[in-house]
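Worked example 2:
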Amino acid sequence: MAKSLGKCTCVLMRGHGSTVVGTSIQQAVFRAIYAEMNAKLQLSAMGIGDVSYLNKEEAALSSAMNDGQIGRSWNLWVQRVGKID
């Protein structure tokens, strides 16, 4: 699996789903949740027409910006889990 991941943070495995890694549990959970959300958005976008993908620089900037939001998202998810009966 490590070989399949390479420098990536997410790998899709036919018949098994996805594996997501991060430098912390919070980052891995954040990436897993948003990978699924983004996959759904991409599928919808592909049904509309051509998709314009981020280049390497845009992807790196997006990743850095997302890393700054992990704490807020994590706190929200922890609150929601705490409210489960």
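DSSP finds four helices and two strands in the chain. The chain has a mean pLDDT of 90.
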